[in-house]
Fold this sequence. Notes:
Elements: E1 2-5, E2 9-14, E3 19-24, H1 33-50, E4 54-58, H2 68-84, E5 89-93, E6 116-120, H3 123-131
Parallel strand pairs: 3-4, 4-5, 5-6
Antiparallel strand pairs: 1-2, 2-3
Helix pairs in contact: 1-2
Amino acid sequence: MNVYTSPYSSIDVEPENKLMNVKWHKACSGLPEEGVIEELGKILLYLKEFSISFVLVDSRNYPFRSNANLQRWINYTFMPKVIDFGVLRYALVVNEKISSIYEDFQDEDDVEDDLVVEYFTDSDAALQWIKSAQ
């Protein structure tokens, strides 16, 4: 079920499977930092609302990987909240395999978490990885 759509991204959830699918659209390339943070905030909103455990993000159109300010916000604000909301698997579909850009995020309470982040170049492989944990 679609819960959010903008020119920049869309979010679908399958509450029965505790699964969220996020897709970044090509138009997001024109967003300022604040706009990207606002779009990411929608993910957090629906993670909490639907008690999501599994997230699949198609980030092939997401052009902000080299933005240090955004990456810092993702590492120190966004990902700790993802952990706090109980997400177990976070799959990112990318154009080409990259090393972890989330490796230095910090959970505020330093409690060991169960979140695993993986990168895929194929959406089907990412979904299979998520389903293997359901």
